[in-house]
Amino acid sequence: MTVRLGLAVAAAGVAVILTGSLAPQLKAAALPADTERTVLFSAVDSKGVPIKDITAADLVVKENGKERAIASVKPATDPFQIFVIVDDGGTGAFQAPVAQFLQTMFGKGQFAMTMLNPQPIKITDLTDDANALRTAVGRLGQRGRITPDGEQIIGGVSDAARALSAKKAARPVIVVLSLSGEPAGSPRSQEALNDVKAANAILHVIFITGVETGQLLGDGPKQTGGVSLPASTGVAIGPTLARVSDSLLNQYQLTYTLPDGVKPNEKFQLSTSRKGVTLLAPTRVPEK
Asked: Which among 8, 37, 47, 149 counts the fewest CB atoms within 10 Å?
């Protein structure tokens, strides 16, 4: 049965237990297990359309510059935990695109929403309740002109990442829609990016063409496996945001192994031998 959210906007193996003297002998002879690590990624063609038939044979994994064995590649199925951060200057221009994004993704996880006013205001915590999400979207309408403060969007991303960490989210995502961007050279950007990486979250950013994107909004998506995409106008936000939902709904879960005794390293590289395919994968992964 298909569940619809209705967010239309008026304006827009076997275990053996051993006993006796044999058990200690076998325990001493057991070989150490390799360390498995798991990464989420997407694959798209030159037009941004998801590629749905990627296999392990198409991929090469390197950690800290050393090639690692791929154990499995399969569609990702865990529920999402998605924070949507709306920086619209009070125009309400992103209300309809956010409603459509939630309609597309509804039933696939939980969602939280924050709007900048100009300070970050959480309008709903992580929830899968349709009524709560409908109410939250209703608050994204035109609210009067708001003077932007670029530092606030950095704080909003940091708050979202820390909330995802606290909840130990299995499939965390942060989606930012920005009309004002991020001040270049902000000393808070690296701290916020560290929070995103600590949460193992994927950061996606859509911004109006011409605004400043710095270390967090510009480089953050590249490091976490997301996208940073410009949209020429508020109207173009919808189709651009649809590319994000397509990417999320067609994610792969890749598991690879580290030989015994090799410590995990945050430097990660995923590449493909298939021509015309772009991989959206993190370049940094938590060492833990």
From this structure: 47
Cα angle: 247, vertex 249, 251; to 5 degrees: 65
Region 1-7+35-288: CATH code: 3.40.50.410
Task: Mention every residue, 6+ apart, whose C-beta is less than 8 A from residue 96.
Answer: 9, 11, 12, 238
Spans of all domains in the chain: 1-7+35-288
Handedness of CA 5, 47, 84, 232 (dihedral sign): negative
How does pLDDT run across 92-145, given as a tens digit for each residue?
A: 999 999 999 999 999 999 999 999 988 999 999 999 999 999 999 999 999 888
- Indicate the pTM of the whole model: 0.87
DSSP annotation string for 221-277:
HHHHT--EEEESSSTTHHHHHHHHHHHHHT-EEEEEEE-TTPPP-SBEEEEESSTT-
